Sequence to fold (389 residues):
Amino acid sequence: RGSSQGNSFFVPGATVGTVLMLGALHARRLYDDKKIEEAREKGIELEFHPDVKATFLSFLPLRTISRFWGFLTSVEYPIWLRPHVYNAWARAFHSNLEEAALPLEEYASLRHFFVRTLKEGCRPIDSDPCCLISPVDGTVLRFGELKEAGAMIEQVKGFSYSVSSLLGAKSFLPMTACENIQQESGGEDKSMGDETQKSWWRVSLASPKVRAISPESPMKGLFYCVIYLKPGDYHRIHSPVDWNVLVRRHFSGRLYPLNERAMRTIRNLYVENERVVLEGQWQEGYMAMAAIGATNIGSIELFVEPTLHTNRPRKKLLHSEPPEERVYEPEGNGIMLKKGDEVGAFNMG
Amino acid sequence: STVVLVFQAPVSSANERMPSDFKFCIERGDRIRMGEALGR
Fold:
């Protein structure tokens, strides 16, 4: 504020205090991140550790915040400004702009730029017919074989979530190899019970009776892989194998952040968040792919079903309500996807 | 955002001359790009 005594600028004490407090919090966060990085380098696993800040997140209207972020990033920039904005984004989040299919001036908004396609040949597809490729650019968080009955995936050390909660209770999730062995040794045939009428192909995938028809065929195990996409990564999703997508399930959920800190502090992160699950069959049996949204990247677009809209405003969100499900061509083979085909994209907001 | 894949694959074969176990070819923390093999 101006004054006649010559003070041309005055910052109120409260503002100074707020800036100092935010600076201290940021410094503390950087210190914590450095400690985590050092621990990881020493081979120490991150452990689940709920905290008050994570609890506070559940009171925030994260879906509304996400949609507002989407609105902000949809604002079109003047052409002269676009390269500056996208270069700044690329510097901040380590994106490779040389891979973008179009000149930067042609991306009207940050949201448009975020789901950019890549130049031809930037992502060669592994041509080995026996391999399963990564559907996205990202960081491998977890992978392995699901061996226990009621298969669980570890979120971090000390906390796991069930695969059926992630994919849906009506999922056609087959039995693990261990369960198959138990069945062969005289255990109860769970897949042939009340659900017989519901899944003709669940039986064909899981039942050892069917497998016994061809004794040369190998025993099937159930595997998983979790890949995290950072904000600077290419955000389109591709098909990992040649497969037939039979069912799509949309879980309208929360939109917690999905970063490392959230993973350590929020229970059931992947099971609570909004997500789209595709289920189907590939040459080796069952295949499912779950795309999970976050606060900044809240909506998931499916190119195989353009009418699907996620992260919609709703008056009241009941997390117990069942997912919205669509069966693709119930009498046919569903939607056939080739390895490397574009399936969908994560959108901002 | 995160993607989770869940899939069936062979774990053992009755035919010992043609082993067909599925093996991941990645490590935890690896950066991977679309189109690169996760496993064979």
Summary: The longest helix of chain A spans residues 13-41. Confidence is low (pLDDT under 50) at residues 187-214 of chain A. Chain A is about 30% helix and 20% strand. Chain A touches chain B through 70 residues (CB under 8 Å).
